[in-house]
Amino acid sequence: MKPIVSKDSIVYFNDECYAALNAYLEKANHSKIFILVDSNTYENCYTHFMSKIEKEYEIEVLEIEPGEINKNIDTCSSIWSVLAEYGADRKSLLINLGGGVVTDLGGFIACTYKRGINYINVPTSLLAMVDASVGGKTGVDLGNLKNMVGVISESEMVLVDTEFLGTLPVKQMCSGFAEMLKHGLIQDRAYWEKMSDLSKLTTDDLDQLIYDSVVIKNKIVFEDPTEQNIRKYLNFGHTLGHAIESFYLTHPEKPELLHGEAIAIGMILEGFISAAQLSLTEEELIIISHVILATFPKVDIDPNDYKAIMELLVHDKKNEKGNIYFVLLNTIGEAKYNCIVSDDLIIDAFEYYASL
């Protein structure tokens, strides 16, 4: 597969990944190399990754606990301290080997340590391959508020090796499909239709769909790297999805919700709002709801929690001057940003989801 060139980085796929990495490492002559992993990727991915590095380098492994709950400033502080302890300088390199938590957090650590060191992302989850691979968004959560602290700065390169997907639990694979479905909904009806029946996909199909998903995201980010306009499309499903995810993160008595599972709910809710407020048809809304629920079983959201979830919307990063802005759909494959939605319509959306 041909590498995908973004503003300041290049995404390599499968066989090309490690040829590009080895050429880069030999040429760059970094003073030290650090590899950030969580305990899962250290166990399941590290050996395979290291077997692809052809020369001997001074490498230190930095291991964190897995899970969104650890994507915070405290974890960053610990890693910054370890980097300082091991003498990391501005010629050091950080390789982030893991899912979205590792790549988001590791990118932020690299961008801020000594005002910035080089980093490479090696996403090991489907979600990270199609979402974190392009665009340079790095960051951590502030309490239960998603990605509130971060910077936009692209990695030296991204290595998408789909062999890592064989290590993922089914729930984690499904979580990544949410972002792929979103890419079709906001930008490409034909891609959405390919994604609409996951039961028929082969391994080769999945590799191509991952590639096409990265192409869709890269096209948007290339035109609007700092999210002034069309990059906001990528937030479809995320305004309410992030609020739901944040609410469930701080209520341990609730079922665990992965990022993609929360975004799947958000896409149905925001699909309903699109049909009520824009030109998305009732038929399209039914199709969207059916396709998403075929992969993501419905979550019973207590109606008593609607208001508490909605209160978290004030922290959404798209907000400006006190307005809560949504990304909605005119039709499948065409989005509109900066839409203002009434509280009553949001409640109606929750009730629609509950009725499915």
From TrEMBL:
GO molecular function, one term: 3-dehydroquinate synthase activity
3-dehydroquinate synthase N-terminal domain location: 63-173
Domain 3-dehydroquinate synthase C-terminal: 176-319
Pfam families membership: DHQ_synthase, DHQS_C
EC number(s) reported in the record: 4.2.3.4
Keywords noted in UniProt: Cobalt, Lyase, Metal-binding, NAD, Nucleotide-binding, Zinc
Job of this protein: Catalyzes the conversion of 3-deoxy-D-arabino-heptulosonate 7-phosphate (DAHP) to dehydroquinate (DHQ).
Protein name: 3-dehydroquinate synthase
Organism, scientific name: Aquimarina rubra
Top-level taxonomy: Bacteria, Pseudomonadati, Bacteroidota, Flavobacteriia, Flavobacteriales
